[in-house]
């Protein structure tokens, strides 16, 4: 029997959309026709409603850009739920089994800070977490392999439909835009229209893919029911907290006689997100010397560690989406096996790079990596004017990508930001074997025993998501950030 034999049946699962969290921000003091001072966001258009000037404006969590510029009560709730204090409360209460999934970017951030390898960092983290009472520590490079495979399948599907296809009921066209960065997704939903949103890949990010795997399937293999699990991720940015809070990632279990948990209960795929920096604070507060911690064996169930004990995973500090899909498309569509590593051509700046494949003198594949909002705005402008030639774009909100995420450990005294990024890029793959996601035995096991095959109906149900145009609201006033 496969080690991934199902305890939960997929037929028992049913997507569920939870109601939005809402808070009220009072704008009573804002006069309807007053001119805003320089630098003050103009609010009065929002208060000229039938309730007149005293009507409060509703701001939901969906309005949050995770910019830390303002804190609504919904944001406060979210931040309290996703804090080190809440994590410690959960482990000490022992009411639920706490499972932690560590991102490769956070692992690299800690490894760089302590001057060790990512493998050593993960092993020491495992020792630390288990000393607190955590049941298992996993690695989101593993779930990222599933996100990458699903993204490859999605790309081929759109390509074969020659740029348009009815995928999850939406008309799809090129370029397909990566979806793993919640900073970009959040920005797109609040400031761009449906014609751009329909280009965003429907595949869940590695964080949410891991949440779906653990809560909807793997917990049963650990002898746990879904409501007995508290799932924590360690991520490079605060935006991942916002991603975990999306209504799209809440699910319920459909009732049947075999399932005691069936009914109205709702479950989140990820309960708490800690940033790399918060992780460092926790380590410094709770253990006298991280370097003296033993290196525990890794939990292999959902960790990319091979038989000889080496970590493996995809290249690319932001997930390697462009490279992975490019290789797959070259192989599947043009029968070309590409050597490694691929050569990206730098365009306007180091955060805008291009990959092309030529066959008989003709460019047949044109991909790009586009990081930072300055480049994103240029790309969107090109899309709107019909001048974008790319078939796929790996979009990331942070300049330099996820290794430079806002939640990463800050540079040491005397170390510049540039030096830190260079160091992180080296450490990221130090003693980590670059691998093909399709060869990952854990992911193969998940498809065999749960999801059937890449791009299957089951995958569409649990590994894919959707996007929503948000009502233009307070946050969308900040349109030129
Ligand atoms: S690019 Fe930045 S905001 Fe986006 S997922 Fe990576 S770290 Fe988070």
User: For the residues shown, what is the average pLDDT?
Assistant: 84
CATH level-1 class of the domain at 10-17 and 79-143 and 206-312: Alpha Beta
Query: Could you list the spans in which at least 5 consecutive residues all have pLDDT below 50?
Result: 1-53, 164-170, 475-481
Architecture of the domain at 10-17 and 79-143 and 206-312, according to CATH? 3-Layer(aba) Sandwich
Number of helices: 16
The description of the largest β-sheet is: 5 strands, mixed
Structural class: alpha/beta
CATH topology of the domain at 10-17 and 79-143 and 206-312, which one?
Rossmann fold
Radius of gyration: 22 Å
InterPro entries: Cytosolic_Fe-S_CAF, Fe_hydrogenase, Fe_hydrogenase_lsu_C, Fe_hydrogenase_ssu
Organism: Ceratopteris richardii
Family: Belongs to the NARF family.
Protein name: Iron hydrogenase small subunit domain-containing protein
